[in-house]
Amino acid sequence: MIIPQELEAAMQMQAQAEREKNASVTYGESEVLVAKQFEEAAKVYENNHVAYVLRQSNMLYESMKVQGNTIVMIPSETLNSMGFGNLRMTLAYLKNTKKAATKPHAAAAAADTAE
Fold it and tell me: Taking a C-beta distance cutoff of 8 angstroms, is the pair 83, 89 a contact?
């Protein structure tokens, strides 16, 4: 049996689309798993300063192994003076920044509904 070339091309396109769809689903599932693992790690680091410092050291070491990377060293005292010395402070800063960013929008929305 001979399959017309147009039909064969359409079948190939459909098969390729199916492979791409499956790859996207797999990638999305992986993203969820990684996010959950980061969340668990953050809880460990929040409660264990030594583990957090060791992780920072390991990340620095891993980034320095790759040739061609540019590393900017910031002394931990500098980060501490800016309030970024530990995970809890960083998370608190980010949470407060996010709240502050949403407040003007809420006030504007309230003003719009009052008019």
Answer: yes
How does pLDDT run across 97-110, given as a tens digit for each residue?
777 777 655 555 55
Any alpha helices (H) in the chain, and if so which ranges?
5-47, 49-65, 76-81, 87-114
How high is the pLDDT of residue 39? Answer: 94
Say whether both 48 and 1 belong to one domain: yes
| Total count of domains within the chain | 2
**Ordered DSSP codes for 69-89:** -------HHHHHHTT-SSHHH
> Binning pLDDT at 50, 70 and 90, where does residue 56 land?
confident
Which domain, by its residues, includes 100? 75-115
Helix (H, G, I), strand (E, B) or coil at 115: coil
Which amino acid type is present at position 43? K
Answer yes or no: are the C-beta atoms of 71 and 63 closer than 8 Å. Answer: yes
Cα–Cα distance between 44 and 52 in angstroms, integer? 8
User: The whole model's pTM is what?
Assistant: 0.46
Task: Give Rg (Cα) of the chain.
Answer: 25
